UniProtKB/TrEMBL annotation:
Family: Belongs to the claudin family.
Role, per record: Claudins function as major constituents of the tight junction complexes that regulate the permeability of epithelia.
Cellular localization per UniProt: Cell junction, Tight junction; Cell membrane
Keyword set includes Transferase: no
Protein name: Claudin
Membrane topology designation: Multi-pass membrane protein
Length: 220
């Protein structure tokens, strides 16, 4: 029962981490971090991401323009680019490391200590990836709220609001965090099997043979 629970937690943890990593990549390139609706023209909406700003018109469709200068961007967008790239890289590294630590993988099936360490390291990488995804998303959201309620800006001026990418980024970050928690719980909170089936049977047969002969096991 403990082995089934351990494998189930590993499987769910990897799936959540994979989902969070994919959503983190989507968030990085999705041009919907901020939305701007013009009251004077309902048929025209503006969106902004980390790489480009887009205008959506009912007749023309969606037209985007890349930002020309990195240094000309606001601080939150510059830092968000770096942190999102870091999150994507750490998530990929976490998938590779924790994948070799899964019990269902036959590679290194007798080296449970190594597999345990790989799972723990993978969980830590997913934690770090989740935090580095949540920080830029939350920072951009905080700046958006501050600018929205800024009394120095005239009420007639349109205000930026939350875009869909922020909600996807939050979901991605929490998925990475939860996936890392499950992997570390599977590594530290449950008992690892001593060996796979054929090794356990061989060990049991050897012990039975020594008991029948009335001698002690050499390793005892």
């Amino acid at each position: 029962m403990a082995l089934v629970l351990r494998v189930a937690m590993q499987f769910v943890g990897i799936l959540l981490s994979l989902l969070g990593w994919v959503l983190s990549i989507i968030t990085t390139y999705l041009p919907h971090w901020k939305n701007l609706n013009l009251d004077l023209n309902d048929m025209e909406n503006w969106t902004m991401g980390l790489w480009q700003a887009c205008v959506i018109q009912e007749e023309v469709g969606m037209q985007c323009k890349d930002f020309e200068s990195f240094l000309g961007l606001p601080a939150e967008l510059r830092v968000s680019r770096v942190l999102m790239f870091l999150s994507n890289g750490l998530g990929l590294l976490g998938l590779l490391v924790s994948g070799f630590g899964l019990d269902c993988l036959r590679i290194g099936e007798t080296q449970w200590d190594v597999k345990k360490r790989l799972l723990i390291l993978g969980g830590i990488l997913f934690w770090t990836a989740g935090v580095t995804a949540l920080v830029p998303v939350s920072w951009v959201a905080h700046v958006t709220v501050q600018e929205f309620w800024d009394e120095r800006i005239p009420e007639i001026v349109p205000r930026w609001e939350f875009g869909e990418a922020l909600f996807i980024g939050w979901f991605a970050g929490f998925s990475l965090l939860l996936g890392g928690c499950l992997l570390n719980w599977a590594a530290c909170g449950t008992q690892a099997p001593l060996a796979s089936g054929r090794y356990a049977v061989a060990e049991m047969q050897t012990q039975c043979a020594y008991l029948e002969n009335g001698t002690a096991h050499p390793s005892a």
